[in-house]
Structures are given as structure tokens and as C-alpha cells.
């Protein structure tokens, strides 16, 4: 693989943006989820027993243990961590010099601290993926200086390879679990006929995608299997065009998911991982010749084999009479299991060979560095980086081989022990998205109702999740409304499987504003904003998208299913029993708010953003950051153009790409001018001596010296 300086820089910039999104999205929801009067107060997760700080950090690695030492309660400390993470990631987004290993370590530590007390609202696969990718950023980002990631290092390819390996594990496992789960919709290729209307928070385009014919939906499932199971092997191909083809197929899948569903920052994070498939020369034409033609033939053979395998495995046939493409799964579960046993260990060895090649290549580059001390220092760096990379790769084999039991059992016990030691830090994780398709018999949805008299009931409508049948599906990406997501999971089973739901009912009966803002940011749209309801109940409905010929004013249709939560009120025996059973009733007296300067600053900032929808806040920050970076890029480009014209106005060679290139060219120009200046002085002195010998007056060369001085001043001012 070629140089990876540009993809690496873009990857680190994307990670800074994604961190900013994650911190801001969580910050807006902290009071309602984890506040002292929230659904699951975070202080319940931290028991201050007077143990030494180091012992507390080892038991639960979170910076929230420092809260009491700063005079902050757990809720305020969580908000402070979110604000610190958002500010630091925003600064890293705007300034390339801050995309440093130490900065990414701070971001990872901050998000891990929040994750440790996040409970069910932070236990999503994309939170694990962000932590694992964030840890890799510590290795990928520069450590030795704050000159930014644009500086080339000989071992960059080794650490950046771990990002490619993570992308492979994510995509390959996501495809495999769909078949190992034995879900009939995935095996019958009908999963997408349900997916668009049963996913957590669909977009308006999901309604249109749901109307596509069944044969197209089945063909789309076939394409998903090919992209997630077959194509990821090409990530490690030594041929660039195969990797680029794999890159564009992954990008296509992620873009389609973004258009049809609100999956917060997950798809953006996956797209950032896809950058590991690129190199600095991915837009440059390849050299012609025999080697190039042989590469073309190999690539053509690989894509042809991929298409042929797809046709055979899914029995693709063209029905000319109906203009359809017929498809079905042409293999059994036993055959797929045997296939999985056959390929899992070879996939590990492919990773080993690919990583070994990157290590050997980078070691050779370090050995070729001029100067003994520089070469010795680069070799030390390579040794440390190679050791860290090999260690992360080794422990990642444990969660990767979860997809096949026999392969997992064959791993060396020492690797498993190392994995157990670092498991709490979320350095490596197992993945498997959309394992089973839910809502085959209709999308289950919980609808909460409130009443002041127990006779007249009013539905409590959420901002994002389906409820009102006439409201169009929202577009909230990259924000994740975590309560709406958990409401989707709660509807899949009885309320006893979601203890937090009882806390939600309890807080709504109390009229807690922080919880109400999770449902409606503008509390005036909440039907009981003037006075809390005296009674609350919940029912489960089945929702479907409307048909194209139905009433155009409606997006959904629904039928009543069953009671989800009985009618309760404050002091109700059933409600009190559930609260006591789950330990959700706070028996301690009301807590006094901390009055330190930091606490006051956090509360003031909260008052400034209260009432602003989270997705609006995130989009505003993203737009401002993108505008700033664009203007910065244009400024650097103009500076490069001016530098190129100043260095040699008559040349027609290519322009330098970065400001560092301009500085380097200016230094070369200064050295050249200095050499010319010294030559001119020698010529002048020779002419003076000759003139003296001939009895003539020396030639006045002040004009030439002044021109040289002007050139020097111009270079320095530039």
C-alpha cells in the first residue's frame, strides 16, 4: 500500500468531528437521563466509600471519581466532562496541530468515563465502536510533536492498518451474524420488506424505499450480503483498484443507510473507517506496461468471481416476462456453518500476513533514513509502534472469533487472558448489527397517555419516535435521542424487561422538567406542561407505513395491540412496588446544588442552550466548523499559489499542496539566493582586483546588491 498521509489526516479530522457530535448529543440529554431527578441518576453507579483514588479508578475507570474533589456532584461532573470533550474535539476539528495523540487520549478517556456510568442508555454498539476507534486514534495520531498529522512518519502505515482491520471485523461480523441468527427474513431475503418501517427512527425517504417492489428488496438483501461478507476480504488486497472498489461499495452501503434511517454518528464513523482503504495516490493514474495489464486481468478475475459466486449462491435469474430479477438463498445453514469454520482462521492469517507486510515495509523505510542518530530514533519508534499494533491485533482476535465457536476455542489462552485484562476499557469489541429483523407482524410502538381525571386521556407525543400518524418521520442524524431509541427496544417485550420505563412513568407523574425535555425540547408542546398528569398509562400499538394510494396526509396506520403499563398515580401500590423492586426510588433527602465556580459556570451554560433542539445545535456546530476549515483551506491554497509564483514566476510546474510545502520551497529558494549572492560577491571582488591592477576605478555594483537585499526582505516578509 502506498503512502497514507492524506487519508490519515482526513481520518483524524473526521474522528474529531464525530467526537464533537457524540459529546454534544449526550450533553443535551444528561440532565434527563442521569441527573439527580433523571431516569437513572448517575450517582447511583458511584459509591464513594473513602477508598484511595487509584483503587476507585481500577474498579471503575471514570474521571467522575474526581467530582467530589472539585466540589461537584456526579450530575454536574458529567456535564463538565461532556463540555470538556466537546470543546477539545471542536478545537481539534478547527486546528490540525491539535489532532495529536495526547488530545485523542483525553477524548477517549472522557468518553470512557461517561460510558462507565451510562448504563442502558449508553450500551449501544456504536458507543463501543467509538471507544475502540478512539483508542486507535491515539496510535494513529502523531505523538512526538504538535506539528500536526501532515508530517510523514515511516511507521504510519502500521498503525493505520489497525483501522482497516477494525473495518473488516465490523463489516464481516455484521454480515455473518445475519445468517448465523437463523432469522427467517434474512434467509428468505425479505428482511428489507420490513426493515424500513420497523427500524428505530426512519427518515421520510424510508417511506418511499418501503414502496419498492419485493424483487428489488430481495436483490438489495443479496447486495448487502455481498458487500458485508465477500467484499471485506478485498480490504487486504495488494492491488489498489481492488481496495478502491471495496471502498466505494462500502461507501454506497453507508450512504443508503444514512438516507433511509437515523443511526446517529454510526454511519459517519464507519465512513471514517473506510478511509483506511485509500492512499495518497488513489486519484493518480497507474503506470502503463505489462505489470499494469497483469493487474487489470487479476482484478477482472476477482470481480468476475465475485459476481459468479453471487449468482450461484443466491440463484439469480432474470424473468424477462415481468422484468424482474428472481433470487433465493441456494445454500443451507449447515453449509454456511461449514463455510464459516473454513474461512475464519484463514481470515486471521490474511490479517497476519497483511500486518507483517506493513511492518516489514515500514522497518525498511526506517532503516533507509539518513544519519545514524535519526535512523536509531526511527527504529526505536518503529519497535514501540509495531509492538503496540501487534498487541491490539492479538487481543482483537478474541471478539472477532466469537462468530465461530471452534475458531475461538483454538486461540492461545494467553491472548484470552490479555483480552480479559483490558475488556473494561473497551479497547476491542465484538460487533453484529441488525442480527434479527423485528416487527415482522407490524412495528410495535408504546404510546403513553396521561389524564388529569382518569376519564379523558391525552397521548404524550415524542419528538422523534413514531406516534402521531400524520407526522412525517424526522431527520435527526447525527444526533441520537437515546430515550426514543430505548422506547423502541422496550416495545419489543414486556415493561419488566425495561426497568427504566417505570422510572419514566414516575418522573412524568412528578412533572420533572429535565425528563420532559427528553420528550419535547419545547416544553410548551408537552400536553401537561402547566400541571403534571394525575394518572398515566401505556398501550402497545402495531404501526405500518401507509400505502401509496392511501390518504396523503398520513404516513402511518396503526391498530391497538395490548396494554403495556397499567394505569398508575403517585402513591399507587403497583408503582411503588415496581420502584422498590428495581431500586429506582430515591430515599435520600433532596440534595443541595454545589456552589463552586465550576458548577455555576456549568449551570449558566445549561441555561443558554436549554430549549434548543439537539440536532439543530449539532448541525450548527458542524456547519460553522466546516465553513472555518473551508476558509482555512482556501487561505492555505492561496498562500501556496503565491509562494509558487514568488519562488519561480516563470515555471509551469505543479503547485505545492500545503503550507509546509511552501515553507520548504522558500527555504530552498533562500539557500539558492544565498549561493548566488556569494557568487556575485566573488565576481565583484575579482572585478575590483582586476580594475585595480589595470588602474581603473572599481565598478559600482550597489544596484545589484540592493536588488539582492530586496529579494531577501521579500522572502522574509512572505
UniProtKB/TrEMBL annotation:
The keyword Transport does not apply. Residues 123-283 form the Lipase maturation factor 1/2 N-terminal domain. Residues 657-673, 684-695 have a biased composition (Basic and acidic residues). It is found in: Endoplasmic reticulum membrane. Residues 640-656 have a biased composition (Polar residues). This is Lipase maturation factor. It is a multi-pass membrane protein. Residues 427-566 form the Lipase maturation factor 1/2 C-terminal domain. Residues 640-718 are annotated as: Disordered. The chain crosses the membrane at residues 12-30, 76-95, 102-123, 129-146, 158-177, 219-239, 251-278, 290-318, 380-403. It comes from Oryzias sinensis (Chinese medaka). Keywords: Endoplasmic reticulum, Glycoprotein, Membrane, Transmembrane, Transmembrane helix. Involved in the maturation of specific proteins in the endoplasmic reticulum. Its main location: endoplasmic reticulum. InterPro entries: LMF, LMF1/2_C, LMF1/2_N. The keyword Transferase does not apply. Residues 674-683, 696-718 have a biased composition (Acidic residues). GO terms for biological process: protein maturation. One of its GO terms (cellular component) is endoplasmic reticulum membrane. Belongs to the lipase maturation factor family. The lineage of its organism: Eukaryota, Metazoa, Chordata, Craniata, Vertebrata.
Amino acid at each position: 500500500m502506498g503512502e497514507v498521509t492524506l487519508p490519515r489526516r482526513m481520518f483524524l479530522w473526521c474522528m474529531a468531528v464525530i467526537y464533537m457530535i457524540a459529546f454534544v448529543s449526550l450533553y443535551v440529554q444528561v440532565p434527563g437521563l442521569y441527573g439527580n431527578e433523571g431516569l437513572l441518576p448517575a450517582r447511583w453507579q458511584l459509591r464513594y466509600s473513602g477508598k484511595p483514588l487509584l483503587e476507585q479508578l481500577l474498579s471503575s475507570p471514570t474521571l467522575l471519581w474526581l467530582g467530589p474533589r472539585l466540589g461537584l456532584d456526579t450530575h454536574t461532573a458529567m456535564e463538565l466532562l461532556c463540555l470538556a470533550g466537546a470543546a477539545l474535539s471542536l478545537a481539534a476539528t478547527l486546528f490540525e496541530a491539535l489532532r495529536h495523540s495526547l488530545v485523542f487520549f483525553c477524548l477517549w478517556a472522557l468518553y470512557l468515563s461517561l460510558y462507565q456510568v451510562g448504563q442502558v442508555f449508553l450500551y449501544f454498539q456504536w458507543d463501543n465502536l467509538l471507544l475502540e476507534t478512539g483508542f486507535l486514534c491515539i496510535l494513529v495520531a502523531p505523538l512526538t510533536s504538535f506539528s500536526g498529522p501532515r508530517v510523514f512518519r515511516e511507521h504510519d502505515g502500521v498503525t493505520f492498518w489497525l483501522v482497516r482491520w477494525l473495518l473488516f471485523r465490523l463489516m464481516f461480523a455484521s454480515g455473518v451474524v445475519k445468517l448465523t441468527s437463523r432469522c427467517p427474513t434474512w434467509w428468505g431475503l425479505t428482511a428489507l420488506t420490513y426493515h424500513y418501517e420497523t427500524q428505530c427512527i426512519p427518515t421520510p425517504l424510508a417511506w418511499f424505499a418501503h414502496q419498492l417492489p419485493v424483487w428489488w428488496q430481495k436483490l438489495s438483501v443479496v447486495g448487502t450480503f455481498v458487500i458485508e461478507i465477500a467484499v471485506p476480504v478485498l480490504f487486504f488486497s495488494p492491488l489498489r483498484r481492488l481496495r478502491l472498489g471495496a471502498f466505494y461499495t462500502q461507501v454506497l452501503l453507508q450512504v443508503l443507510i444514512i438516507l433511509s434511517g437515523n443511526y446517529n454518528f454510526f454511519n459517519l464513523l464507519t465512513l471514517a473507517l473506510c478511509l483506511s482503504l485509500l492512499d495518497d495516490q488513489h486519484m493518480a493514474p497507474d503506470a502503463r506496461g505489462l505489470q499494469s495489464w497483469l493487474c487489470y486481468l487479476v482484478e477482472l478475475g476477482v470481480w468476475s468471481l465475485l459476481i459468479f459466486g453471487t449468482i450461484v449462491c443466491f440463484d439469480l435469474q432474470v424473468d424477462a416476462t415481468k422484468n424482474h430479477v428472481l433470487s433465493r438463498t441456494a445454500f443451507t445453514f449447515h453449509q454456511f456453518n461449514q463455510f464459516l469454520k473454513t474461512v475464519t482462521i484463514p481470515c486471521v492469517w490474511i490479517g497476519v500476513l497483511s500486518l507483517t507486510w506493513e511492518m516489514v515495509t515500514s522497518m525498511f523505510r526506517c532503516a533507509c533514513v539518513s544519519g545514524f542518530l535519526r535512523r536509531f530514533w526511527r527504529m526505536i519508534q518503529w519497535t514501540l509502534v509495531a509492538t503496540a499494533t501487534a498487541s491490539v491485533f492479538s487481543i482483537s482476535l478474541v471478539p472477532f472469533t466469537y462468530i465461530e465457536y471452534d475458531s475461538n476455542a483454538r486461540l492461545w489462552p494467553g491472548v484470552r487472558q490479555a483480552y480479559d485484562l483490558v475488556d473494561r476499557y473497551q479497547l476491542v469489541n465484538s460487533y453484529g448489527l441488525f442480527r434479527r429483523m423485528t416487527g415482522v407482524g407490524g412495528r410495535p410502538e408504546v404510546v403513553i397517555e396521561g389524564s388529569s381525571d382518569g376519564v379523558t386521556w391525552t397521548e404524550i407525543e415524542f419528538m422523534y419516535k413514531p406516534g402521531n400518524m400524520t407526522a412525517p418521520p424526522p431527520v435527526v442524524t447525527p444526533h441520537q435521542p437515546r430515550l426514543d431509541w430505548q422506547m423502541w427496544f422496550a416495545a419489543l417485550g414486556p415493561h419488566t424487561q425495561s426497568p427504566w420505563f417505570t422510572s419514566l412513568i414516575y418522573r412524568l407523574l412528578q412533572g420533572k422538567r429535565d425528563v420532559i425535555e427528553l420528550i419535547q425540547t419545547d416544553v410548551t408542546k408537552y400536553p401537561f406542561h402547566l400541571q403534571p398528569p394525575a394518572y398515566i398509562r401505556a398501550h402497545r400499538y402495531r404501526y405500518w407505513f401507509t400505502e401509496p394510494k392511501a390518504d396523503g396526509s398520513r404516513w402511518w396506520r396503526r391498530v391497538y395491540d395490548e396494554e403495556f403499563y397499567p394505569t398508575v398515580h403517585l402513591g399507587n401500590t403497583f408503582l411503588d412496588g415496581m420502584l422498590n423492586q428495581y431500586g429506582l426510588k430515591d430515599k435520600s433527602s433532596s440534595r443541595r446544588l454545589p456552589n463552586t465556580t465550576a458548577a455555576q459556570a456549568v449551570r449558566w451554560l445549561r441555561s443558554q442552550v436549554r430549549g434548543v433542539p439537539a440536532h439543530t445545535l449539532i448541525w450548527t456546530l458542524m456547519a460553522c466548523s466546516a465553513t472555518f476549515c473551508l476558509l482555512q483551506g482556501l487561505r492555505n491554497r492561496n498562500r501556496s499559489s503565491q509562494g509558487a509564483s514568488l519562488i519561480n514566476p516563470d515555471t509551469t510546474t505543479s503547485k505545492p499542496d500545503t503550507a509546509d510545502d511552501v515553507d520548504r520551497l522558500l527555504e530552498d529558494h533562500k539557500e539558492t539566493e544565498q549561493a548566488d549572492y556569494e557568487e556575485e560577491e566573488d565576481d565583484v571582488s575579482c572585478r575590483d582586483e582586476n580594475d585595480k591592477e589595470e588602474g581603473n576605478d572599481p565598478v559600482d555594483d550597489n544596484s545589484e546588491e540592493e536588488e539582492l537585499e530586496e529579494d531577501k526582505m521579500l522572502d522574509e516578509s512572505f
